[in-house]
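To illustrate the input format used throughout this study, we show a single complete record. The first block contains the structure-token representation of the backbone; no residue identities are included at this stage. The design step must infer an amino acid for every position from geometry alone.
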């Protein structure tokens, strides 16, 4: 179970009682309800602090509740469930100067011997393994790393190229920890919950990827899903080639706000005799786009995963930036979505 560590937060607030008098608490779906208990614990702890909960949806560490923070005149935003988004100094300087404290939340489930045996059998003959995790499953990552090393596998843990992320840690849009060891490994094992992180690793590296799904205690081979998504993206790109009028979407969300990239897309489209209109939105979903029936497709500069995981929710093509770069010939499809041949033992499955 993922559980907010209330004691840790109270300790932090007590230590900083003279600095933070107004706080906004923020958590993603699934954790948000636990903020009620924390709210109560803060009131009962006798710390003289005003507490507010951001009730808005949260999509990741890129999506900080600055709006709520500004409205409530907060001294700090306390964000649960993620580590710091690897943003640049330039990005942070453009945002309201409210400090953000990140509290990752860890799953406390045990790794069973049964799950480990299933993992050994799924890895099969591969010996050089890149081990990765999403932050909630760091405790299980440590256990599995030890077990795999004891079994004689060569384990590689990538440094990653993004500030704020730990060794071996990936998030939905940053898989530097996988990329840096790509040439050394035959397969990746991703310790996570759900297919989201493992799919990103598999799609952007083309390397055989196995997911250890801690919540369901199951092992998944991502090859088939990756091939399916790759072919859908390729098909959407073909459709996009025929389009003349694109909406270029900019999200208002803190670290998803990419106006200069949108301007670049707009320029590139008009240069090619196509039309591009920049739309600034709060939350991107198929319903808000229904108000623009004249647009034939979209380029979204918000979150790259919208054009991967949610690709089928949108009837019209909706490209992310890397897909747009393929569309305009600045990148090759294989370069963005490579595919490495698998060992025979995996192909037989
Ligand atoms: S994958 Fe998308 S939602 Fe997640 S951190 Fe990256 S931009 Fe944000």
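Output of the design step:
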């Amino acid at each position: 179970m993922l559980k907010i560590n209330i004691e840790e937060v109270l300790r932090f607030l007590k230590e900083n009682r003279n600095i933070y008098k107004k706080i906004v608490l923020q958590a993603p779906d699934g954790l948000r309800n636990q903020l009620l208990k924390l709210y109560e614990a803060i009131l009962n702890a006798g710390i003289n602090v005003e507490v507010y909960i951001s009730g808005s949806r949260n999509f990741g560490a890129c999506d900080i509740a600055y709006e709520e923070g500004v409205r409530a005149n907060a001294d700090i935003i306390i964000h649960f469930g993620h580590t710091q988004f690897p943003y640049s100094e330039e990005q942070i300087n453009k945002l309201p100067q409210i400090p953000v404290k990140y509290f990752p939340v860890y799953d406390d489930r045990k790794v069973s011997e049964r799950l480990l045996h299933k993992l050994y059998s799924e890895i099969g003959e591969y010996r050089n393994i890149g081990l990765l995790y999403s932050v909630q499953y760091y405790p299980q990552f440590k256990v599995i790393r030890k077990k795999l090393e004891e079994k004689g596998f060569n384990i590689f843990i990538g440094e990653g190229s993004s500030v704020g992320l730990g060794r071996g840690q990936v998030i939905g849009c940053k898989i530097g920890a996988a990329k840096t060891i790509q040439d050394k490994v035959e397969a990746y094992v991703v310790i996570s919950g759900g297919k989201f992180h493992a799919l990103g690793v598999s799609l952007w590296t083309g390397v055989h990827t196995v997911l250890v799904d801690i919540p369901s205690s199951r092992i998944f081979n991502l090859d088939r899903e990756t091939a399916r998504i790759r072919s859908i993206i390729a098909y959407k790109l073909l459709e996009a080639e025929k389009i003349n009028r694109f909406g270029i979407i900019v999200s208002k969300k803190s670290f998803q706000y990419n106006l200069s990239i949108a301007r670049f897309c707009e320029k590139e489209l008009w240069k090619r005799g196509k039309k591009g209109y920049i739309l600034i939105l709060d939350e991107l979903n198929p319903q808000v786009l229904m108000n623009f029936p004249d647009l034939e497709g979209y380029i979204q500069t918000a979150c790259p995963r919208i054009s991967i995981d949610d690709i089928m929710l949108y009837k019209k093509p909706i490209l992310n930036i890397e897909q747009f770069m393929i569309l305009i010939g600045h990148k090759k499809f294989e370069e963005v979505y490579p595919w490495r041949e698998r060992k025979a033992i995996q192909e037989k499955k």
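Structural context for interpreting the output: The pocket of iron/sulfur cluster is lined by residues 59-62, 171-173, 256, 303, 305 (CB under 6 Å). The chain has three domains: 6-103, 113-221, 229-335.
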